[in-house]
Every structure is written in C-alpha cells, then in structure tokens.
TrEMBL record, chain A:
Coiled-coil parts of chain: none
Membrane topology listed for this record: Multi-pass membrane protein
Highest taxon in the source lineage: Bacteria
One Gene Ontology CC term in the entry: membrane
UniProt keyword list: Membrane, Transmembrane, Transmembrane helix
Location(s), subcellular: Membrane
Pfam families for the chain: LrgB (PF04172)
Transmembrane segments: 31-50, 59-76, 82-108, 142-161, 199-221
Keyword flag Transmembrane helix: yes
Protein name stated in the entry: LrgB family protein
Organism expressing this protein natively: Neobacillus vireti LMG 21834
TrEMBL record, chain B:
Membrane spanning residue stretches: 12-29, 35-52, 64-85, 91-109
GO CC annotation terms, alphabetical: plasma membrane
Organism this protein belongs to: Neobacillus vireti LMG 21834
Membrane-topology annotation of the record: Multi-pass membrane protein
Listed InterPro entries: LrgA/CidA
Protein's name according to its UniProt entry: LrgA family protein
Keywords in alphabetical order: Cell membrane, Membrane, Transmembrane, Transmembrane helix
Subcellular location field: Cell membrane
Length: 225, 131
C-alpha cells in the first residue's frame, strides 16, 4: 500500500515538475531537484520513512540500467565527432576531474572536515553505481558518498548550463563533456534536453570519467592525506 | 496501437537484455568498470558491426533518454536520511560541493573548447597556406 502510494506520488510529482520546468525555466525548477524536495516533504508529512520508500524506489529504478545503456544510441550516431575531438575530450576530462577533486579536498581541509567527510569527496563526480563500488575499496562512508554524488549531480544540472553560458563555453561538444564529467547521470539527463550532441558527449564522458577516477584514486589518496 | 506497444516492448527487452549482458561480463571477467558502462560499450559495438540496427531500439531508447531524470529522483529521495548532518554541517558541506563543481565544470569545458578551437584554427591556417 505504502509502495503504491510512493510510486504514484513520485510519478505525479515528476509530471508536475516537467510541466513546471517547461513553463518556468530556472535552476530551481530543475526536475530532479524540485521533485526530490516535494516528495520528501510529502513523505515526511504522511509519516513514511525512507526504509518504507525503498521497495518503491527499487521498482522505479529498475529501468535506470537500460536507460543508461540507451546512451549508446546518441554516442553511435555522433561517433565521427568523438573520433575528431578525441584529444580535446581526454584533455578536458582529466583536467576537469583533477581540478574538481583537488579543490574539494583543499576546501574541506579549510573547513576542517573529518576524514570520512573528506575521503568521500574524491568520488563525488562519479556516477552512483561506480561511486559506491569505489567507496567500498577506499573504506568510505557509503551513504555520505551517495549524498555527495547526488548533490553534485543536482548542482551540475541546475547551474551547469548557466555557468558555461556565462564563461562562453558554447561549443556543444565542450558543454556536454563538462557536464557529463562533473555531474554524471543527473547532469547528463539535463544535457540530453539541451541537444543530441551534448547528451551523447555527456553520457560518454560520464562513463570515461568513472573509469578514469577509479584508476587515479589509489594514487591520489596517499597524496591528499 | 497494439502493434506500436508490441514493438516498444520488444525494443525494451533488447535493452534490458544488453544491460544484463553488460553486468554479466563485468562479473565474469572482473572488469574495473561498472555494468552500465560495459553495457554502453557492448551496445555501441553491436550497433557498429550492424548486428543491431538503430531502428531496432530507437523508440524505446528515445523514450528512456527523454525520461532519464525520472530514474534519479527515487535515489535522490534518499537524501532525507541525511537531515541531522545537514543541520550541523549544511552550509560548509554545500559550499565545498558547489565551489568544487563550478571549478571542475569550467576547467573541463574551457580546456575542451580550447583544444577544439586550436585544432580548428590550425586547419584554417593550413587551408590558407594551401591557397
């Protein structure tokens, strides 16, 4: 019963959020952000705990895997572009990942975050399924990692396009790469709406960034702590 | 209508199947990549060598990508368990994530665009020279 309520609630809030985003375009109407806020408010008001929401979550995210691999379609369609900009992509990706991790850790040190809180920052830009796997290897706090990853994705989805506009990053390939590298799947979902190239590049960048991060983390951690 | 639904379901089953194959290959060969990334690579190759044609999956793939945001919402609702942390650490927590995300977004975007522009400029110069 609670599961059915949770599913209907999530779906109707999502449809409402899409309608809202189409009508008023703003970072605050970014669908993942606004839907999450509204759903949490409803669950708290109707006394449903997160544990009770989990069965509904498992049903609704069943198609996340197939949806992620569907990104192969735009990647395939734009394959010539990937070959053309291969060097640019590798440069942008590695610079993006290294600067975002380094700046996060330096800031965390300024705020005197505990080791758990700092360690989890190393995987904040990696897509959820990979971040949790890396988290186990580095003995990180998994629920904290998931929170960092989701919030980072939301930040990218909400402000990424605006920030890139402001600093005149207007090439669709560079825009997609930037959002996919930093804001993984949640950012990619937003990039897909901006254009086919952006979506394809973001999806590919998300995958490559995940693999790249899992390779560099064992070398990075001894340098940071 | 029924025909479209049948076609859609078959396409969806193809995508689910490839996703499962992606998970399986990672587990069997102990690959250092997640199942979904392996699934993307497998589907890309199947499209490339022509075993699967774009038409075979485009309807379901397009629908899934259109609603990609939806699948992240139930996962994000998990943030509700983090209430106490937010009360004590909220501001510095968000500040670190926002500033580092902005730095990453800009450096990735700027670096990529700079390399692309350089490449394209070189091409123009070469062209001038040929003239």
């Amino acid at each position: 019963m609670i599961t059915l309520y949770s599913i209907l609630l999530t779906m109707s809030v999502y449809y409402f959020a899409r309608f809202l985003a189409a009508k008023y375009s703003s970072p605050l109407t970014s669908p993942v952000f606004i839907s999450t806020v509204i759903i949490i408010i409803f669950l708290v008001m109707s006394n449903v705990s997160y544990d009770e929401y989990i069965p509904a979550k498992n049903i609704m995210t069943y198609l996340l895997g197939p949806a992620t691999i569907a990104l192969a379609v735009p990647i395939y369609k734009n394959r010539l572009m990937f070959a053309k900009y291969f060097v640019a992509a590798i440069m942008g990706l590695s610079i993006g990942i290294i600067t975002t991790i380094t700046s996060a850790i330096l800031l965390a040190k300024c705020f005197q975050f505990s080791k758990d809180f700092t360690l989890a920052l190393t995987v904040k830009s990696v897509t959820v399924p990979v971040a949790t796997e890396i988290g186990k290897i580095i003995h990180g706090n998994i629920s904290l990692i998931v929170a960092y990853v989701i919030i980072t994705g939301m930040i990218g989805a909400m402000f990424g396009a605006k920030l890139l506009n402001m600093f005149k990053v207007d090439h669709p390939f560079a825009r997609g790469l930037s959002i996919g590298t930093i804001a993984h799947g949640i950012g990619t979902a937003e990039a897909v709406k901006e254009g086919e190239i952006q979506g394809a590049v973001a999806g590919a960048a998300m995958g490559i960034a995940a693999v790249f991060t899992s390779f560099i983390i064992p070398y990075l951690i001894p340098l940071m702590f | 209508m029924i025909r479209t639904m049948g076609k859609f379901s078959i396409q969806m089953l193809i995508l689910i199947g490839i996703y499962q194959i992606g998970n399986l290959t990672v587990r069997i060969f102990h690959l250092p990549i997640p199942g979904n990334v392996s699934g993307i690579i497998i589907l890309f190759f199947l499209l490339w060598i022509g075993i699967i044609k774009i038409d075979h999956i485009e309807m379901a793939a397009g629908w899934l990508l259109k609603h990609l945001s939806f699948f992240f919402i139930p996962i994000s609702v998990g943030l509700m368990t983090l209430g106490p942390v937010f009360v004590t650490k909220g501001v510095s927590f968000l500040l670190v994530l926002i500033v580092s995300a902005f730095i990453g977004l800009l450096s990735a975007g700027k670096a990529t665009q700079a390399v692309i522009m350089k490449k394209e400029k070189e091409k123009v110069n070469y062209h001038d020279h040929a003239l």
